[in-house]
Design brief:
With about 150 residues, this protein is mostly helical. The chain has a single domain, classed as Leucine-rich Repeat Variant (Alpha Horseshoe). The protein has eight helices and no strands. Helix 1 packs across helix 2, helix 3 packs antiparallel against helix 4 and helix 5 runs antiparallel to helix 6. The mean pLDDT is about 85.
């Protein structure tokens, strides 16, 4: 019973720190939430990743913990960030990488490739083109579609 109470206290601590005022505390909390990997932790990471008022680096760190969320939640959280042309290129490329590498869906990748034709940010366009070209030409059986 003591072990369960200790776990609950740690879980509560990370949730409180995620709303902390300083960058260091937020970054520390996100690392803890990513390591917990529980449903409540995922919900908090989704909230932080989608929060446009949060620091960019904190949002990017939160996106790193979204590898194991359900596919539907990933599409609802990450795709709007990728398609938001007002978002910073670091956020957009991280969202795209998370979608391609962890929540792969052929139709979404085809839409992302088609979107590159109209992409105005040279950083996003270059990064995504290089990513897709590398995946298309890979010899690694883990990354190939066949």
């Amino acid at each position: 019973m003591h072990r369960i109470n200790q776990f609950i206290n740690e879980f509560t601590f990370f949730f409180k720190c995620a709303d902390a005022p300083t960058f260091e505390e937020k970054t520390f909390a996100i690392g803890g939430l990513k390591n917990l990997g529980l449903g409540g932790a995922h919900a908090k990471l989704i909230q932080i990743a989608a929060d446009k008022t949060a620091d960019r680096s904190v949002r990017v760190a939160a996106m790193g913990g979204l590898a194991t969320i359900p596919h539907k939640d990933a599409k609802e959280t990450l795709l709007p960030i990728y398609y938001d042309r007002n978002a910073h290129h670091e956020l957009r490329t991280k969202a795209a990488v998370m979608m391609v590498m962890y929540h792969y869906e052929q139709m979404i990748v085809e839409q992302m490739i088609g979107h590159l034709y109209f992409e105005q940010c040279k950083y996003v366009k270059n990064f995504m083109w290089t990513l897709f070209e590398g995946l298309a030409n890979t010899k690694s059986p883990c990354l190939s579609l066949e």
